[in-house]
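stuck on this one:
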Amino acid sequence: MSRSEHGGTYSYKVHGAGRRFMSDNGTEVDVDFAADGNEVFDLWRLRGYGLSLP
């Protein structure tokens, strides 16, 4: 089960170990969290962000 929230021009969806943040213009940023709470942002997620830019 996933959870979604919306506030202003941004929304996010909780998934597995992370969150996907989405703006109203279609830009997306996906971040996972390691067991110690650190953010995981890798090349795959950076590519997805770049491809989502208007």
About this structure: The mean pLDDT is 87. Residues 3-52 form one domain.
